[in-house]
Design brief:
The protein has 201 residues and is α+β, with helices and mostly antiparallel strands. The chain contains 4 helices and 13 strands. It is globular.
Length: 201
Amino acid sequence: MFLKINCFKALIKKAWSGVGLTVGNDGTGIYLLGGYWSIYLDSVWMTKKAKAAIIELTGFIPAAGQAVTFWKSEDNQTEERELLPERYYKPDTCYFKTKYKDTGIRIRDYGRGVAVLQNTNTMGNIMLAENIVDMVDNSSREKGEDPVSPPLSESGQEGIYWQNETCTLKCMPVLVQEETKEEFLLKKLEEYDFEEKRKRP
């Protein structure tokens, strides 16, 4: 798994304590949903630490073909859900043509932290939750696990994906309000090519 385990634990706990943590089992792996993000973990590659972190919050992992949402409460509230089609949490990103580059720029304002990613084709910029982007870590992979892909998207609207054979991470972009500092910064950053590390002609 190419995710920092401490960040992974914090992310799923926040969902469980708030909007709810959905766990689905498609028979070959499990997916986790937490509002604006999803994570798919292949059963063969799933680490003991990741599995233990999930069970610590939920008490169990649903059986194959089932999905359940868990909430933190006195009686550990749960609700059964329909299992999502695979394309929502584990699409084949080999066919995605839009690649993004993490600019390394972080904006911390309005009570949130966001990371700026640049479309390497159009130089347009988007914002994603900082904790999601910073969770991706090639050095956290298991032995024999392939490197993680760069951030990829089919069109940008359905989310940004990182993927290898063990794990798929998806995050929805943060909406940018018009006539704000964030909008101005994103537009200004289009003048710089972060892939080539130079100002655009």
